[in-house]
Design goal:
With 265 residues, this protein is α/β, with parallel strands linked by helices. The protein is built from 10 helices and 6 strands.
Length: 265
């Protein structure tokens, strides 16, 4: 009996490991396939994101009102959310330069400062108005979290910003910045991958990019084939996972537990 029991456990373990390996290969294959397609010119279509589309509206409104646009790439260092925020900063800088609006970028992390400066300068250069670039538009505030928040809030109130864009990694300062922008009457677009801060953005901002939408928007803004292909490949992997769950659930209702057993281990 013990021999059979151990043999059954080992066989189940081997089957589960093999199934996990095959699933891993499929998921990697989906991502690689879509990346190769994108690099060969077959750019995958990404659904329209309301917050991304609203950026031009926000910049246009600030231009009409003669008031500046405030942009914060968050309080993180060089993490994925910050890079997505910097990609979107490039898009904002190009639109600000094209419309002739004023831009204020507030930075917490010193390592992000030179990158943000170069991104904004490149945006103005791409718009053909590099001479309009103001080096003082990108401002290092403080490395301390709430000192950064207080300094940024002061700038937003004094300058009476017409648009407040917060796209990156945020912590508890999110509600402070968003509330200040709301009081200033600014149109607000926010996005973060920190789920604990999303409710604060949802209650105070006009448009919110939730979780993966931030990365998708960054990929669309940069039109990077590698990132666009990766997103499309991950979507195929999600479809595969959902299909397994649905098939396993239906099969279990008919007494076939093979798939559910594999998924439960």
């Amino acid at each position: 009996m013990y021999k059979n029991l151990w043999g059954c456990n080992l066989m189940t373990f081997a089957n589960n490991q093999f199934f996990a390996f095959i699933s891993f290969i499929l998921i990697v294959g989906f991502v690689v396939y879509k990346i190769v397609q994108a690099q060969n010119g077959k750019i995958p279509a990404i659904r329209r994101i309301a917050g991304l589309d609203a950026i031009e509206e926000a910049v246009g409104r600030a231009t009409e009102m003669g008031r500046p646009v405030h942009y914060s790439p968050g309080v993180g260092a060089l993490d994925a959310a910050t890079f997505a925020g910097l990609e979107l900063l490039d898009l904002v800088a190009k639109q600000v330069a094209r419309y002739g609006a004023d831009l204020i970028v507030t930075i917490r992390q010193p390592i992000v400062l030179p990158i943000a400066e170069e991104v904004v300068k490149t945006g103005y250069r791409s718009a053909g108005v590099e001479e309009a670039y103001n080096p003082d538009s990108v401002r290092f505030i403080s490395q301390e979290q709430f000192a950064y928040a207080a300094g940024t809030m002061g700038i937003m109130e004094r300058e009476q910003v017409a648009a407040n864009l917060m796209l990156g990694y945020f912590l508890a300062e999110s509600i402070l910045l968003a509330e200040t922008g709301f009081k200033a009457g600014a149109i607000q677009i926010a996005g973060t991958d920190n789920r604990s801060q999303v409710p604060f953005f949802v209650t105070t901002c006009d448009y919110v990019l939730i979780g993966e939408e931030l990365f998708a928007a960054g990929a669309v803004a940069s039109q990077n084939p590698l990132k666009l292909g990766s997103i499309a490949g991950q979507d195929l992997a999600k479809i595969y996972a959902i299909a397994l769950l649905v098939i396993g659930s239906v099969a279990a209702n008919f007494g076939i537990t093979a798939i559910s057993n594999l998924l439960s281990k």
